[in-house]
Amino acid sequence: MEARVMKNDLSCGVVRDLLPSYVENLLGKESQEAVERHLENCPECRAEQEAMASPPEAEETAKEVDYLKRVKKGTARKMILAVVCTILLVMGGYLLKEFVIGWTPDAEHIRIEFAHVDEDNNLTLLADTYRGAYELRGLKAVTKDGVLTYTAREVRVNLFQALFMRTKIEDVEGYVKQVPLSILLDGLTEVWICGRLVWQEGLIIHPDTLRMLETKTPYCGDPVALGRILDALQLQEFTGGHTMSLQTSERPYVLTLKFEKRISPFVIWDWTESYFLQILALVDNLDEVAYAFEPEKGSGRTVTGGRVTVEYATELMAKLTEAYNLRCGTNWPVHENFKEYAESPLEYQRMITLLEEQSGYRQGGVLIWSDKAGQ
Asked: Where are the alpha helices (DSSP H) in the chain?
């Protein structure tokens, strides 16, 4: 009877000492039953047992979830910050490159205006870039073996400059992009600005000279290349159209142009010859340029065409060169072959200068034509 009372009369302290074994199901049968009887009548120990019986993973999992949420939130902030910083760095690098560091300008972007040589042998000009939103900065000059070379950076014009840095030139007020230069030519043979040849051995090299030499072709049997030369001379635009035919089966190789518009009596005839001479010079194996047209009615013109040959061109340029040397005290070479005038910008510019002296031809000018109604 006394032993049974002991089984049923476990104190809370004893039960709590046994609870770990009870939860793990390690007690013997009698001890387990005694603990269970105690738990039925003791809410405190039962609560302790339930707490021990509940899986600790739940609490740990909750903690881990909270931790992961904090990590994820922190990672998202870092990613956003990284993206923003990257964007700012890219934009900052772009703005730094565009407005401060700039680019090495392409020679084709360089524009030279109002170039002339004064009585003191100074070459004065305005240097600029064709790209309107950009300007030249940081011009540096280096002279070596008589060749003066300018380098510069091409940078974007900023809004502050355009609005507030205003200059007045010849009654025109505003922001001026052009860079004025005055260059003493004594001891120099060439002047280059950002890869663009500007002056050589006494002659200012016209941009049209460089543009025309880029169209030079070795073979007259290439209609596309011939078309580029005619386009550069602006014949198509100002003649209202023409047909082109080639004779390349045997020498002499001949290019024939037939113009569709009637010739106005105001056409300067020698100008047309200057155009055809340039075509002849720019095609290495072309022997003749022939042309045909219909004179305007009532103009009194009877000539309907003509031709320019290499032999004629060589003879003509020799006479013009000798006369120019005698008149100006120069020592320009007399070439044995007219094609030599297309071998360098200097020689091509000399050819143009002689043609301007002879006929009043103006480089970059255009022919004057009228339609059949005389308009």
From this structure: 2-8, 12-23, 29-41, 43-53, 56-96, 159-164, 207-213, 223-232, 235-239, 269-282, 310-328, 345-359
**Residue 5: pLDDT above 50?**
no
Angle between the N-to-C axes of helices 310-328 and 269-282, in degrees from 0 to 180, rounded to the nearest 10: 110
Q: Is the peptide bond before 252 cis (omega within 30 degrees of 0)?
A: yes
Q: DSSP letter string over 315-372?
A: HHHHHHHHHHHHHH-------SSGGGGGSSHHHHHHHHHHHHHHH---TT-------T
219 within 8 A of 225, measured Cβ to Cβ: yes
How far apart (Å, rounded) are the C-alpha atoms in residues 67 and 74? 10
C-alpha to C-alpha distance for 34 and 26, rounded to whole angstroms: 14
Encoded tokens for 336: 């044995």
User: What are the residues whose beta carbons fall under 8 Å from the beta carbon of 147, sequence distance 6 or more?
Assistant: 188, 189, 190, 191, 192
Nearest to 109 by CA among 129, 125, 124: 129
**Would the pLDDT of 78 be above 90?**
no
Verdict on whether the full-model pTM lies above 0.85: no
pLDDT, the chain, mean: 82
Q: How much is the pLDDT for 189?
A: 96
- Torsion angle in degrees (nearest 10) through CA of 89, 95, 96, 100: -170
Q: Using alpha carbons only, what angle is made at residue 353 by residues 347 and 356, rounded to the nearest 5 degrees?
A: 145
